[in-house]
Amino acid sequence: MNKKQKKMLLRIIIASVAMLVLMWIPFGEALWARMLRLGCYLAVYLIIGYDILRKAAKGIYHKQVFDENFLMAIATIGAMSIAIYENGDYTEAIAVMLFYQIGEFFQSYAIGKSRRNIAALMDIRPDTANLLTDNGIEVVEPDDVVTGSIIVVRPGEKIPIDGIVVEGQSTLNTSALTGESLPREVKEGEEVISGCVNLNGVLHIRTTREFEESTVSKILELVENASSRKSRSENFISKFARVYTPIVCYSALALALIPPLVLFVTGNGHGFSTWSDWIYRALIFLVISCPCALVVSIPLSFFAGIGGASKAGVLVKGSNYLESLSNSRYVLLDKTGTLTEGVFEVTGIYHNRDIEKETLLEYAAYAESHSTHPISKSLQQAYGKELDLSKVSDIEEISGNGVLATVEGKRVAIGNEKLMQHIGLSDEIQTQTDAVGTIVHMAIDGRYEGYLVISDRMKATAKSAIADLKKVGIRQTIMLTGDSEKVAHKVAGELGIDRVYAQLLPADKVEKVEQVLAQKHHDKEMVLFVGDGINDAPVLSRADVGIAMGALGSDAAIEAADIVLMDDNPQKIAKAIRIAQKCMRIVYENIVFAIGVKVICLILGALGIANMWIAIFADVGVMVIAVLNAIRALFVKKD
Amino acid sequence: MKKTYQIEVDCANCANKMEEAAKNTAGVANATVNFMALKMKVEFEDGADEKETMDAVLANCKKVESDCEIYYE
């Protein structure tokens, strides 16, 4: 509790006690007793409400008539006046002020607390950096570290700035960024990103970026700015608030004037008591007229939702994307890097009877030993033994087709069908139809010896990720890939994907997204595109919501996407949708609940059934409940 | 030029009012108030003096909500 809150709490306690005591004192009917009673109650009223009255006066000065302080002041002064005239119940006016203050106090406390909760969630900003200088280690602000400096990160500390390890090895905990506590091993020469926690060894890191440009700063900036992209619900609420208060206030005025006038004209009025009755009802309207419950709880729900999502490793760039995400019906997924690892491996070797499998693989690995192409790498990896590069000579690359090389005196040809045609062996090619993947043919000394199948490995979680998407209400999953039809259909079949478009160039993907956008039945249905953020920036921006995954350390992906998944687990897509749906449910609950209760209380007030106490509940109680409900968006189920 | 300032304000509706007031200040191209983060982001018009503009922004905000504060220098 801060100083302001403590002072308010004290005022609330004093006023409540004083009011309870006064209620038990019998004052009598004499004029002086009436004056004394008024004086005592007035004192309590001022203790609890002086700041409201002062603010109301300032509001009038600045022509802010629909200011809530002004409304509260009018309502309570009105209630006081009626009580003075009737020598009646002063407690009601004081209670209105008292409960209003209690509500404000609670709101300020609850919001302060949720603010701290969310801040703690995003407490990944490092405070200091240990700069290595000629005089030893100096502790400095991360902002002051120049690119290219060496910083030291001890066990238990956060890496403050992106860089490359120059000394030491350690395990990093990336959970602050990804929401998954999968430790990552790092050693000399490897890139590390800020925000990870160093678990065991001491690391010396050469920084490659300024602090402001580092991953951690970018993420924080992104999340903090998210609320400036307002959702439709938020815009609706601010528009609603702008008209709601004036409407209720004018209704109050009408209620105070028209019904009593009608009653008097028709001869049913009973002097001042008729007036005071209708004025009292009008005052109830003024108490209910504050839109605070809505105005505070809707943005708070989004803020909490975005905070909770970022804890789960899902960065949402704006409330509007959270809203769209919750309505997603079509999901287009890129294959490579999204559903598959993007890492190639040898999945099949078919060879002639008179050559060993291992021998074929060995020749393949050697022939491709000078290449860094992912396919060559997969061959070297499959071979698994150290390569003696002196065994290879006369390497001749035939671009787009393959490689010719001499390995241990034998002329090896490795590549696609075109290469085999090139060396006149196209008739010898044999491929079984069930081979799925990239096929690499091999010939040794002019004789066709067999082929290797290289394919991309599917992610272990890909299948359940697609199943999860169905569970959260996705109507259709569509896979886009540049791969061949055969590969694409096999992958899609295994994963349970509804539709496949294969052999696409990057530009074709945009076209496919547009096709899907054109065929949706309803404006509210959203089309998602999920990619790995590499080469698909145009597609990411064309879809209603673009999700980039595996973005840890990839700036391009963070820039291009609307939602960023920090790790590369495709199950996070469904999780993000669930978080969004929960958040939107809370938003709608709050809108319906707050407006509903207010409208009901307004009707009851107009009919003379509701009193000030109910009005106070409609104002303050609803707000408190809505705020508490909003906080729920912060909590994301672990699964 | 864009700048972000720490602010102090008690209620969400008041934060919205501050946003409106800041937007309607001369020299301000756009402004957003983030009530949860207690931050005001101001986009200045070209050639606007930061200090002068922010003085005006604060004065306008004080008009709509006397109990607010913006921290700039």
Automatic annotation (TrEMBL), chain A:
It comes from the Bacteria. GO terms for molecular function: ATP binding; ATP hydrolysis activity; metal ion binding; P-type cadmium transporter activity; P-type zinc transporter activity. Its main location: membrane. Pfam families: E1-E2_ATPase, Hydrolase. InterPro entries: ATPase_P-typ_cyto_dom_N, ATPase_P-typ_P_site, ATPase_P-typ_TM_dom_sf, ATPase_P-typ_transduc_dom_A_sf, ATPase_P-type_domA, Cation_Transport_ATPase_IB, HAD-like_sf, HAD_sf. Keywords: ATP-binding, Cadmium, Cell membrane, Magnesium, Membrane, Metal-binding, Nucleotide-binding, Phosphoprotein, Translocase, Transmembrane, Transmembrane helix, Zinc. One of its GO terms (cellular component) is plasma membrane. The keyword Zinc applies. Residues 125-224 form the P-type ATPase A domain. The chain crosses the membrane at residues 9-25, 31-53, 65-84, 90-112, 247-266, 278-303, 587-607, 613-635. The keyword Glycoprotein does not apply. It catalyses: Cd(2+)(in) + ATP + H2O = Cd(2+)(out) + ADP + phosphate + H(+); Zn(2+)(in) + ATP + H2O = Zn(2+)(out) + ADP + phosphate + H(+). Belongs to the cation transport ATPase (P-type) (TC 3.A.3) family. Type IB subfamily. This is Heavy metal translocating P-type ATPase. It comes from Agathobacter ruminis.
From TrEMBL, chain B:
Pfam families: HMA. It comes from the Bacteria. Residues 1-69 form the HMA domain. This is HMA domain-containing protein. GO terms for molecular function: metal ion binding. It comes from Agathobacter ruminis.
